[in-house]
Structures are given as structure tokens and as C-alpha cells.
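In response to the reviewer comment on reproducibility (Comment 2.3), we provide here a single inverse folding case reported in full, input and output, so that an independent group could reproduce the run without further information from us. The C-alpha cells appear first.
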């Protein structure tokens, strides 16, 4: 059945519309909510990026606590610290920064402008991965020639760096499907058998990726699949069930994980 065009200026046309008026207004309201939330989110990111970092005193030998950064996220039990003087990992972190800088070497007028590198000391990450040290490499894109305007410059770019006691190195991107974390769980043979295990893994995930999703619930979907951080999200008039899918062996050992979103039928 072909729908008539909607003309809100004509009551006669409005009568002929096959879509219920309530449905139209509901979609308009959803789009307005989405636009407002997007605007607020972008304004907040711009404000904290411009404000920069503010540090306060901390215990000797562990750097200073960062109290104002767009990377702080919402997990309150995972503070960020500047890298203390004499920290042997400093050279490794500096090498990571240089590798990112090198990737922009042939980027024309675009370069990387780095923030102060920092160390993450989250409680859940410490308990789940004993002996590992976590750092954040963060930067914005900028222009080399200030006289030439930059187009499509990205801000708030970062990844987490994990350094193991055996000399192994892991990198976790700040966006995407977060599959690197699943490989890390599998390599460490992390158990996922109970809700307590799920809670610890999810909190460590949020700490390392700087996401404020710790309150999102987790469920066991089957004997070999868990869905962590369940949430319903929407874009325009489409709704999605979003979660972090973790697959395990029949004995409850993590094998892989990735972020998923499934359309919800209305």
C-alpha cells in the first residue's frame, strides 16, 4: 500500500495519511532527543578538551592524580596518574608516542598533538590482571601549517597500553568492536563462570577503555556465551540491543569477545 505524502499545512491531506499521527509525533520526538543528546555530548567533549589537564598532589613516587581530562570517564575507582619520575616504563611509553607521531609523518598538513601520557590504576583491572601496568596514549589531530585550515580533524583519540610482567605488550583501541580485549582475556585464560566473574571482567573493561558503562547489567545467554553491559540504544527511529559478547569454552574459560548491536523489532 502506497502512503500519501504528509503535509502538516493541510488538514485535508493529514486526514488521508495512513501513518497514525501519534506515530509521527513519536518519531519526531525521538529524532529531537537524539539531536539534543548528540549536541550536548559534542559540547561536553569540546569543553573538557579545551580545559586541558589539572593535577593535584598524590603519594610520593606514583605521579600526580589527573582530575580534569576527557579520558577520565566515569569509573570513579580507576584514577589516572601522570607517569612518575624514574618509572622504567617511561621509555616504552615514549616509544609508543613516537610510533603514533610517525604514522602522521606522511599525513600532509595533519599531525598529532599529544596530551600528557598517563598511567591507569584501576581496582578491577589490577585484580583481574595481576602484574600488568596500564597506560593511556592520547592525542588530538592538529594542522602542521596553522595558516591552512584543517578539515575533519579528530579529537579525543587514544588507546590503552598494557605491559606484562613477562615483557608482553597489548594495545586496546578506544573505539570499534573492542576485540583486542577479548584476545587478552583468552590469552590470560580468564574464567567466566559466575555473575561475580562477569562483573569483574566488565568493570575492568570499562576502566581500561574509559567507558562509564559499569552499571549496565550482564547476563549469561547460553552455556558458552555471556552478554556483558546490556543496553538499549537508539539512532533516529531505530532501536538496538547493545552488549559485549564473550564466548567461552564449556569449562567457562574466555575464548573471544566483541561488541555487538542487534536491531530491536518495534
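Designed residues, in position order:
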Amino acid at each position: 500500500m502506497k502512503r500519501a505524502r504528509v503535509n502538516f499545512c493541510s488538514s485535508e491531506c493529514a486526514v488521508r495519511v495512513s501513518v497514525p499521527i501519534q506515530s509521527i509525533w513519536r518519531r519526531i520526538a525521538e529524532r529531537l532527543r537524539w539531536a539534543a543528546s548528540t549536541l550536548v555530548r559534542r559540547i561536553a567533549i569540546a569543553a573538557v578538551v579545551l580545559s586541558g589537564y589539572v593535577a593535584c598532589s598524590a603519594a610520593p613516587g606514583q605521579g600526580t592524580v589527573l582530575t580534569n581530562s576527557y579520558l577520565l570517564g566515569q569509573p570513579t575507582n580507576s584514577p589516572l596518574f601522570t607517569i612518575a619520575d624514574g618509572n622504567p616504563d617511561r621509555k616504552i611509553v615514549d616509544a609508543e608516542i613516537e610510533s603514533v607521531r610517525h604514522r602522521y609523518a606522511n599525513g600532509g598538513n595533519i599531525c598529532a598533538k599529544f596530551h600528557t601520557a598517563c598511567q591507569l590504576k584501576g581496582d578491577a583491572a589490577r585484580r583481574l590482571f595481576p602484574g600488568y601496568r596500564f597506560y593511556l596514549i592520547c592525542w588530538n589531530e592538529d594542522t602542521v601549517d596553522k595558516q591552512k585550515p584543517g578539515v575533519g580533524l579528530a579529537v579525543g583519540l587514544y588507546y590503552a597500553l598494557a605491559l606484562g610482567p613477562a615483557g608482553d605488550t597489548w594495545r586496546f583501541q578506544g573505539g570499534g568492536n573492542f576485540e583486542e580485549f577479548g584476545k587478552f582475556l583468552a590469552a590470560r585464560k580468564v574464567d567466566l563462570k559466575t555473575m561475580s566473574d562477569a562483573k569483574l571482567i566488565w568493570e575492568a573493561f570499562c576502566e581500561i577503555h574509559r567507558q562509564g558503562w559499569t552499571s549496565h547489567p550482564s547476563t549469561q545467554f547460553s552455556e558458552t556465551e555471556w552478554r556483558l553491559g546490556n543496553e538499549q540504544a537508539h539512532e533516529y527511529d531505530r532501536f538496538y540491543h547493545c552488549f559485549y559478547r564473550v564466548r567461552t569454552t564449556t569449562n567457562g574459560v574466555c575464548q573471544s569477545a566483541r561488541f555487538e548491536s542487534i536491531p530491536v523489532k518495534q
